[in-house]
């Protein structure tokens, strides 16, 4: 958060100079009482500041008056495809947001009126993937917005919305250039917001089919200045932790997709990573597999590693570290210490000395079970955190199954009895039950109040049921149960993780059982190879596999075709939530929570359910909490603001007690992190409300801002 002033805005002479210089002016029709904005409190980074604390010093809206909060304005972008996860950027009275089509739009932050719109697509491109935020750079009289769309990093003039032609190729850089494979095989995207350090713009990367990285580019030219390979190459630190010595060029994953955190004083960046691909089985590949599931600290100017910590070794559970690290100053052994916080999907809070990487949390390596799948070498130990205390359940237990109805309990008990449940049990053919794929923490991360030394984090407590199958195994029984070549490719590529084992889809992710009614084979092949909307690209797929896959999706396969027996190759039957027959979680509530964690004591100060099922409340069930996606912000005014929930509500909690002080129904689900800012002394809170995403529901196009009545 930054206070901005501009004395040139106070005179007509200065006004003319600004127009002549081409600097951004709040639209004349949108001025407050006919004046240009002279003083603002900005939200000028994704996460509010470079340290990603999501904290604001604003207190005009506070615990006494938040009950009076009203809609100040609503902006509708016109793109109804959903799902926007963008944390808005507010600088000097202007707000910068994105749409599902990756357009960037500048708004008057006092009334939501559109000032300009930039569409990054060129020559009929369809830009897919997710954008979670933008970055801001200014030098002298020049200012620009940097953001990613699909495999490109863009820079546009923040006052006009025009591309900065000197940056890369007419305003954009291809993130896939000059990497370990040809550009056509890389499919790098970058959902997290870039970070600006001096004249460098730093961005993470995500790829389903190629090795990932973190890179810095010259903000003036677009030239790549340095690259950090998250799958180490020969002679790089960590290369010897991989049993497969060619994984650095043939493998995939170890993505950094949640954003980059910057320590401006020490010129250090911090980021976290996910697991290698495939998610649940990587045969003949022993070792801890750095930098999978790590928090990493680099020199921001050179990209050299300062330190790292691996939270999960050789991850076989899709427990990628989900959220950008948070910078903090904490009390440790009686002294103030500059620290960094990393949240995990297992409900843990990891604390580190920011400079040295010393682990401040209490962690011990414990023995875990070996894999029972041929060719898989699960790591023999995993870190267990005993302090701070976890903010989410970590093991599915028989005495914590649902009692919503006798039938629901009986079903949950049957599945529980048939599967394995415990601490880091590797995936197997029998099936495992565990928490974590969608939480504890998710990509929204936490919000941190340094004055109170309290971390606020929303958590999911939804269990998953993962079963493995050898895709090269000759099935027996009826023809309908046989594994065809196309179904084998469907499993091998991890398609069930989004579309389900039976292609039925989930949330707003489409059902694929009737694509033959919509697409021709050549169109479907193009979508698989190049991606579309949120669908990632798979350019590395072999032509035979592509033909088999599209035949399967179009229901054109020979009914008698089966996969020949080869070396065992296991894939999951799909990302299957542990739900009861009515579609509710099969464990006991709460299913989603908001937590206040005291970092002095390491204890949870309060925990409350986050979200509700109205139909269950009408039947007399207490508030259960729901699955939630999106983060919180915390303010000096004593409030924690968060949307995120399945019930499409936006809420303000008392940060001291966890009591709900205000709530409102959004037009669509708010699956993003809000922002707060002030213009001319008036505080606003804004949230992207577009629905869709992993929770599904209706999709829309709204940004909604709230303020106190005048």
Describe the fold and architecture.
It is a single chain. The chain is mostly beta strands and 710 residues long. Among the domains are: 193-323 and 325-392, Lipocalin (Beta Barrel), CATH 2.40.128; 468-573, Orthogonal Bundle (Cytochrome Bc1 Complex, Chain D, domain 2). Mean pLDDT is 89; it is low at 2-35 and 474-481.
Share of helix among residues? under 10%
Total DSSP E strands: 44
What would you report as the Rg, rounded to the nearest angstrom?
25 Å
Task: Output the strand order for the largest sheet.
Answer: 1-2-42-43-44-4
Can you summarize this structure?
With 710 residues, the chain is mainly beta. It is 10% helix and 31% strand.
Strands, helices and their partners?
Elements: E1 2-5, H1 12-21, E2 39-42, E3 55-56, E4 70-76, E5 89-91, E6 94-98, E7 104-108, E8 114-118, E9 135-139, E10 142-149, E11 152-157, E12 172-174, H2 183-186, E13 195-197, E14 200-203, E15 213-218, E16 224-229, H3 247-250, E17 252-253, E18 261-263, E19 268-272, E20 276-277, E21 294-299, E22 305-310, E23 326-332, E24 335-343, E25 349-353, E26 362-367, E27 381-387, H4 406-418, E28 420-421, E29 432-435, E30 446-449, E31 454-460, E32 463-466, E33 468-470, H5 485-492, H6 496-499, H7 521-530, H8 543-553, E34 570-572, E35 576-577, E36 592-598, E37 603-609, H9 614-618, E38 632-635, E39 639-642, E40 649-654, E41 660-665, E42 675-679, E43 682-691, E44 699-707
Parallel strand pairs: 3-38, 28-29
Antiparallel strand pairs: 1-2, 2-42, 4-44, 5-6, 6-7, 7-8, 9-10, 10-11, 11-12, 13-14, 14-15, 15-16, 17-20, 18-19, 19-21, 21-22, 23-24, 24-25, 26-27, 29-32, 30-31, 31-36, 32-35, 33-34, 36-37, 38-39, 39-40, 40-41, 42-43, 43-44
């Amino acid at each position: 958060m930054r206070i901005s002033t501009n004395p040139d805005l106070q005179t007509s002479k200065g006004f003319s100079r600004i127009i002549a210089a081409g600097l951004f002016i709040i639209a004349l029709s949108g001025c407050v009482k006919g004046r240009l904005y002279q003083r603002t409190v900005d939200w000028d980074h994704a996460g509010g500041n470079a340290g990603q604390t999501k904290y604001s010093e604003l207190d005009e809206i506070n615990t006494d008056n938040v009950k009076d909060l009203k809609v100040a304005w609503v902006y509708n972008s016109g793109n109804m495809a959903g799902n926007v996860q963008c944390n808005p950027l507010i600088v000097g009275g202007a707000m910068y947001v994105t749409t599902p089509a990756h357009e960037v739009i500048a708004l008057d932050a006092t009334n939501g009126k559109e000032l300009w719109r930039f569409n990054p697509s060129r020559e009929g491109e369809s830009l897919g993937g997710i954008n979670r935020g933008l970055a801001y750079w200014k030098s002298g009289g020049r200012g620009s917005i940097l953001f990613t769309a699909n495999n490109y990093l863009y820079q546009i003039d923040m006052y006009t919305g025009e591309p900065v032609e000197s940056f890369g190729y007419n305003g954009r850089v291809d993130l896939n250039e000059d990497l370990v494979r040809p550009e056509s095989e890389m499919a790098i995207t970058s959902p997290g917001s870039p970070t600006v350090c001096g004249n460098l713009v730093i961005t993470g990367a995500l790829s389903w089919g190629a090795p990932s990285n973190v890179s810095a580019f010259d903000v003036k030219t677009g030239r790549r200045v340095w690259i950090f390979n998250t799958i180490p190459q020969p002679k790089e630190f960590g290369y010897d932790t991989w049993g497969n010595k060619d994984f650095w060029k043939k493998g995939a994953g170890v993505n950094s997709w949640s954003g980059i955190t910057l320590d401006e004083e020490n010129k250090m960046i911090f980021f976290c990573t996910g697991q290698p691909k495939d998610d649940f089985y990587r045969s003949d590949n022993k070792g801890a597999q750095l930098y999978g599931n790590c928090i990493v600290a680099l020199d921001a100017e050179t990209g050299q590693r300062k330190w790292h910590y691996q939270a999960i070794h050789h991850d076989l559970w899709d427990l990628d570290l989900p959220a950008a690290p948070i910078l903090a100053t904490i009390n440790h052994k009686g002294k103030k210490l500059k620290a960094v916080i990393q949240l995990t999907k297992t409900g843990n809070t990891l604390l580190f000395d920011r400079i040295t990487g010393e682990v401040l949390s209490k962690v011990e390596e414990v023995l875990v079970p070996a894999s029972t799948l041929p060719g898989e070498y699960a790591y023999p130990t995993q870190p267990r955190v005993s302090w701070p205390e976890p903010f989410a359940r970590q093991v599915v237990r028989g005495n914590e199954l649902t009692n919503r109805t006798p039938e629901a309990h009986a079903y949950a008990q049957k599945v529980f009895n048939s599967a394995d449940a415990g601490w880091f049990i590797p995936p197997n053919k029998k099936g495992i039950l565990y928490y974590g794929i969608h939480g504890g923490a998710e990509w929204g991360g936490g919000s941190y109040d340094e004055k109170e030394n309290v971390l606020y984090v929303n958590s999911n407590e939804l269990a998953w049921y993962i079963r493995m199958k050898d895709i090269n195994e000759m099935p027996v029984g009826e023809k309908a149960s046989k594994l065809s070549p196309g179904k084998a490719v469907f499993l091998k590529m991890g398609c069930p993780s989004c579309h389900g084992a039976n292609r039925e889809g989930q949330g707003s992710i489409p059902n694929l059982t009737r694509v033959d009614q919509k697409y021709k084979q050549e169109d479907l092949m193009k979508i698989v190879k190049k991606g579309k909307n949120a669908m990632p690209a798979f350019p590395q797929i072999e032509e035979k596999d592509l033909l088999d896959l599209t035949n399967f999706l179009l229901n054109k396969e020979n009914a008698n075709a089966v996969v020949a027996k080869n070396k065992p190759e296991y894939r999951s039957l799909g990302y299957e939530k542990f739900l009861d027959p009515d579609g509710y979680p099969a464990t006991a509530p709460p299913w989603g929570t908001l937590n206040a964690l005291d970092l002095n004591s390491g204890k949870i100060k309060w925990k409350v359910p986050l979200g509700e099922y109205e139909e269950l409340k009408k039947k007399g069930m207490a508030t259960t909490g729901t699955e939630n996606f999106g983060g919180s912000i915390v303010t000096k005014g004593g409030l924690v603001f968060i949307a995120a929930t399945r019930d499409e509500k936006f809420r303000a909690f008392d940060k001291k007690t966890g009591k709900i002080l205000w709530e409102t129904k959004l037009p669509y689900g708010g699956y993003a992190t809000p922002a707060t800012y002030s213009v001319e002394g008036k505080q606003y809170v804004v949230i992207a409300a577009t629905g869709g995403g992993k929770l599904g529901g209706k999709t829309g196009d709204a940004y909604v801002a709230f303020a106190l009545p005048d």
